[in-house]
Amino acid sequence: MEDKELLNTLKEYVKALEEFGVSFLTLPDEIEFAKNNNKSIITEENDKTLKKKINRMEGDKSKKELLNNLRNKLGNCKRCKLHKERNNIVFGEGNPNAKLMFIGEGPGRDEDIQGRPFVGRAGKLLDKMIMAMGLKREDVYIANVVKCRPPNNRNPEEDEVAICSPFLIKQIEIINPTVIISLGAVSAQFLLNTKVNITRLRGNIHRFKNSNLVATYHPAYLLRNPSKKKNAWEDLKIAMKLLGLPIPGKK
Ligand code: URA
Questions:
Q1: 117 in ligand 1 pocket by Cβ < 6 Å?
Q2: Which of 143, 67, 61, 51 shows the shortest CA–CA distance to 100?
Q3: DSSP conformation letters of 192-235
Q4: Alpha-carbon gap, residue 247 to 102, rounded angstroms
Q5: More confident residue, 153 or 36
Q6: pTM recorded for the entire structure
Q7: Judging by DSSP bridges, how do beta strands 205-208 and 100-104 pair with one another?
Q8: CB of 108 shorter than 6 A to ligand 1
Q9: For 204, phi and psi rounded to 5 degrees?
Q10: Nearest to residue 179, comparing CAs of 128, 141, 229?
């Protein structure tokens, strides 16, 4: 990496950490960390071994192919009423071999326009959360409980979740991440099949199928309540520990 690029990465990384309340760093470890920040955590070697394993497990179909097949099955979905006002289906995106998956609630206005998850203001904050973890957006997979925008950003209704969520569950089965981070109450309560408040669900390790599940606040909520970012950072650190990622500011 060029010195200038390294400096910019380091600046962005420190800014993201500051935003989540990290007040000291143990240099020079973090310089190494920032260098790694520009690399995928999935090394080429790792990826090859993973692909071989997956091919064995899934009759020679890669996760990418399986996700493409699932997207095709979803088609121009009209299974629930959300299709009436949507512009685009937001299927989800990211690394099919990701060890970490983020799951939000449903697309907002920007996502509906672009057909991509978390690209609006909340998405920018999610990008910072990913960066603070020492990862890149390309390392992770991002999806939502429902794939079409609920009008006026209301919460998805029970029938909409019931119809759409089998697609999310299949995505999780294909990706089979080590850790799922659920963003906000709708996602955590759906995945954990509970009505318990997000404030009580966060801060713990739960399970969903083969994955650990860490519930945290939705980035849109964090934009409205910045004082909760330090709690979100505690949740992200739980996920980082489960993923074997180094925790900045910790010797
Ligand atoms: N909020 C969500 O829950 N998901 C998105 O994709 C964007 C905003």
A1: yes
A2: 143
A3: TT----HHHHTTSEEEETTEEEEEE--HHHHHH-GGGHHHHHHH
A4: 19
A5: 153
A6: 0.85
A7: unpaired
A8: yes
A9: -130, 165
A10: 141
The residue type of 234 is E
Write the single-letter amino acid at 112: D
Task: Indicate if ligand 1 lies below 6 Å from the C-beta of 144.
Answer: yes
Q: For residue range 215-246, list pLDDT tens digits in order.
A: 999 999 999 999 999 999 999 999 999 999 99
Question: What is the Rg, in whole angstroms, of the alpha carbon atoms belonging to the chain?
Answer: 18
CA of 88 to the centre of ligand 1 (A): 13
CB atoms within 10 A of CB 77: 17
Pocket flag, ligand 1, residue 187 (CB < 6 Å) = no
Mean pLDDT of the chain: 91
Q: Where are the alpha helices (DSSP H) in the chain?
A: 3-19, 29-37, 44-57, 63-74, 109-114, 121-132, 158-175, 185-191, 198-201, 219-224, 229-243
